[in-house]
Specification:
The chain is an alpha+beta fold and about 150 residues long. About 45% of the residues lie in helices and about 20% in strands. It is globular and about 40 Å long. Bound molecules: zinc ion.
Amino acid sequence: MNPDLRGLYQEMILDHGRRPRHFGAPAQFTHKLDAFNPLCGDRLTLYATIENGEVKNAQFDGKGCAISVASASMMCEEVEGKSCDHAEQLFHRFHQLVTGKQEAGDIGRLEVLAGVKDFPARVKCATLAWHTLEHMLKGDREAVSTE
Ligand code: ZN
């Protein structure tokens, strides 16, 4: 990746980390799940309205490092209004991307987080929100922990 692009990507992560979108508990939701990454101390709660096989709304709150917050922010933006199948596919692609199992390219701007694959401890930060969503889509009600 060229250095300019890398700088732009870092900027986008910092921006989402500082000013997360879809942040705060919504007035109404059908699903809620807590998640914790003890390795870093990231805690988040994911709220979603999932009806008729579609993620109609996705929001989160909590506290965590810039990577975990930025990833949750971008995830909520990406999956809102999408079908559950699509969200599930995104989860798998994103997971493969940040664990270095797949070349980036077909995941849109989520690719900005691909750099974490070089930092194994950060992978858990980047995937925390996604694992939470995955559990939610499967109907799990237990809190999610990365450990
Ligand atoms: Zn973290």
